[in-house]
Amino acid sequence: MFNGAHVILYTHDAEADRAFIRDKLGFAHVEAGHGWLIFKLPPAELAVHPTGDAPQHELFLMCDDLEHTLARLAEHDVEVSQSPTDRGWGLLAAVRLPSGAELPLYEPHHPVAHGLSP
After folding, report:
1. Is the model's pLDDT at 118 over the cut of 80?
2. The overall pTM is greater than 0.85
């Protein structure tokens, strides 16, 4: 029924953030015209959490080894804006996009769903 998910990051400097995702993170992409790059994402999963606040959505890039990922990104002069912390359910860190926004990185300690068959 569904064949994928389309994630949108709203940012104050879309051109710089697109270049960062293309050049620093190395994500494959297609050109949709007029400088619009659409990036191929790794496999994904969806979680639904309760909140007492206004509903919101978050994006985390998952990795098998957060420390190794951060070391590789440092080789490309990527700024770590949030050092790794163990939250029990996983390790969480963040890198800074050129626009100033943070992009969270996540090494789960729980079973992941993204490799399951439909």
Report:
1. no
2. yes
CATH number of the 14-108 domain: 3.10.180.10
Closest CA to 14 of 90, 96, 97, 109: 97
Q: Please, which contacts does 96-100 make with residues 24 or more away whose CB atoms are closer than 8 Å?
A: 97/11, 97/16, 97/17, 97/20, 98/13, 98/16, 98/17, 98/19, 98/20, 99/11, 99/12, 99/13, 99/14, 99/16, 99/17, 100/12, 100/13
- Give the model confidence (pLDDT) of 2-16 as tens digits: 888 899 999 999 999
For the chain, give every domain's residue range: 14-108
